[in-house]
């Protein structure tokens, strides 16, 4: 697990400046405090920071060169099934000299080229320079667990695990108008674009090849829609799920350093813990974030689960000054305004875990694969949504936050937009009324994914929303997990995102997901004998926090709340119609419905003040 970066000048006579490459590399020190390396040869340069997980000796040092000297690799991630390839590599004349997956990855590439990608079970972002053909190949894993950003600037290709390394190299930090619009309407920028001009992401499941002469090709190496369509029928879904999930956990326990669990107390992370216990893993440490507000707190359930399986339990709460400090830190690690609002908590719990473990297992992905969000329920009967939209402001819909949100959501009439805005907290009509912005973002990538979802699951809005989220919302969660855990120099692994589970679940009938009161039916069925009723039937809380109260009542936020309405943010013409003073006053009076309107703007204010000024 690491931070990677590189520079390729597309003019072959221009040499890489080692000082710039070193600065880029060391801006990612938190991603890899154990080792560092550089490779520079004329117009190409790679930098690497290493967090040692497999083969913690110097044998795993990167950049990694092939035995024949032709290829140079920098790699961030884990190939969980790397030892499966030993016999094949040895029979083809390759010596295995280390215990690292890095060596296996490069030798598989030498043997099979990029055809080897479909055989890898893991998370990865890597770059390979071919000295003979003078071409750079960059690759990203299927679901986008590991990040990879790039920029073409001044006839140079820059890439890195985090945007800050690109800014450190001199790529200008400039907000993109399209990105800003997506942030406001959809909470994050989906697809290859980012919040910044000149900075893009390599898409999950994609390969980019950059030739020294400037020719660039992009190719999709993994297509979830096709994989689902080609999945053979699963005869006994519950047994299949349980066995595959256990095997996924077993694979993700491959490590030469201690592994712990992020344990919220909810169904997903408790299922991870139950599988570990079922497979007789001992001495597991669990880490939890608690809240003093009862409606946000699951710590008592997490503690019960850890004690039930005789595992270690560590919990903490985050408030006032500590919360503010972690907000500033997590904004720096995120490189963008925080969006999920749980980033400070995830960073804090990862830092708490760091003295005990180097790897954490997370329950991420279960909701998007099996229908775990309440917001999907609104898509079950679109005709009822239409009725709600015409009822008017009944107290039923305005006094309870969840119903109030449903009423606002019901104002959306197009089915495509019901899916595209399902993960939003505020909707186009709300934004028009409160921000004075009435032009929808282009959302080209989101529209493309919706089209795919619709062709795979015609007339099934719930399944469309799941597929849509797997390519959009889940990517933003994985980005959050990566930044917050790597910010504490910890690797995060997601057992639910094993490709066998992702594809298999996508091929099952609706009843395996949406049956029962709270859905995720197959997970509950598979875990029924392993988990107590308190977990199986508990109302989902998720990692949510009362930010409206934090911002208005905590002394730590007083100064920022006062300067907020005068923020440079509101000099942007896009925000010229927002009466921010009025929104803040309503929030201070206790109007909780203002929170979703204020938080994206407040977090952008914090980002401008604490992050943008650094670059």
TrEMBL record:
One of its GO terms (molecular function) is asparagine synthase (glutamine-hydrolyzing) activity. Keywords: ATP-binding, Glutamine amidotransferase, Ligase, Nucleotide-binding. It is an enzyme of class 6 (ligase). Residues 2-213 form the Glutamine amidotransferase type-2 domain. InterPro entries: Asn_synth_AEB, Asn_synthase, ASN_synthetase/amidase, AsnB_N, GATase_2_dom, Ntn_hydrolases_N, Rossmann-like_a/b/a_fold. Pathway: Amino-acid biosynthesis; L-asparagine biosynthesis; L-asparagine from L-aspartate (L-Gln route): step 1/1. It holds the Pfam family Asn_synthase. NCBIfam families: asn_synth_AEB. This is asparagine synthase (glutamine-hydrolyzing). It comes from Flavobacterium xylosi. The lineage of its organism: Bacteria, Pseudomonadati, Bacteroidota, Flavobacteriia, Flavobacteriales.
